[in-house]
Amino acid sequence: MEEQTILAEKYYTREVDTDKKSIYCHHDLMGELMIPTHKHEKGQMLYAEGGIVYVTTEAKTYFLPARHFIWIPAGIAHSIQPNSQSVMMRNLYFPVEMNEDSFYGTEGIYPINDLLLQMMLFTNRWNGNLKKGSRNYSIALAIKAILPEICLTNLPLSLPFPKDTRLIKIIDYLDKNLGDTILFSDLADRFGFSERSLYRLFQKDLGMSFIQYFTIRRILKAIELLLEKKLSVNEVAQAVGYNSVPTFSNTFFKTLGQRPSDYLNGVEILKKNNYS
């Protein structure tokens, strides 16, 4: 881990921000590398293939699934960890410009459409600084320019950290029992709360209700299971507590804008094209 940390620090501090005016490009198979907390003077577009990448800021953990990207504004401290050695990360780091669109100042996860996918894959053989005025710089800048136009849905693929020690225990219990039917009234009784006081605790500490938190957590787990390809959609639904596949499919669609089966088919298409 110490050697990995040194490598990560060297990479980020000596490469990404060396040339303040360049767009920095880096594609890498993550392997077992966990990149510790750091920040850049440039905004980062991180696209993932082959698994899930966990991006942790001071306030939240983001779950970046395959065929999605996360935008990390300049100056935001974050760590990065893949869930698999086979995760491919494609990164573009952009200098901050004057009077930028508000899109670039907000963290968010977005699906990759066909246009953006082809543009990102076009950068496959680039690595290092793209000098301002060069052809590759212009192409990369076009990628940045279209983001506010086509990325209209910031997906809720993140969960805040609980701060209250009582809620930390409850969240741990929920994580260990995602496949069970958990009623809010039973949860309150189990941990010695009234329903009203527990509702207030969720809202005050996490900024969301129990239902919102538990639904997102279940869908995030479902994404992980789907990417592992060991279970059918029906089995994944049951594993995350849905007795009805249509209900699971509808909830998944509301979160990602795709049905579980379509999500899997998209992953297969990407693999068949062998872009990595």
Can you offer a commentary on this structure?
This protein is of the alpha+beta class. Residues 1-10 and 268-276 have low confidence and may be disordered. It has 2 domains: 2-150, Sandwich (Jelly Rolls); 162-271, Arc Repressor Mutant, subunit A. It is built from 10 helices and 11 strands. It is globular. It comes from Flavobacterium pygoscelis. One of its GO terms (molecular function) is DNA-binding transcription factor activity. It holds the Pfam family AraC_binding. Keywords: DNA-binding, Transcription, Transcription regulation.
Biggest β-sheet: count, sense, barrel?
6 strands, antiparallel
Helix fraction by DSSP (H/I, runs of at least 4) = 40-55%
Large-scale geometry? globular
Instruction: Please state roughly what percent of the residues sit in beta strands, choosing from under 5%, 5-15%, 15-25%, 25-35%, 35-45% or over 45%.
Output: 15-25%
Give the strand order, joined by hyphens, for the main sheet.
9-6-3-8-1-10
What is the count of β-strands?
11
- Which CATH-level-2 architecture of the largest domain? Sandwich
Mean pLDDT: 85
C-alpha-based Rg, rounded: 20 Å
The level 1 CATH classification of the largest domain is: Mainly Beta
Q: Give the N-to-C terminal Cα separation.
A: 26 Å
Would you tell me which CATH topology of the largest domain applies?
Jelly Rolls
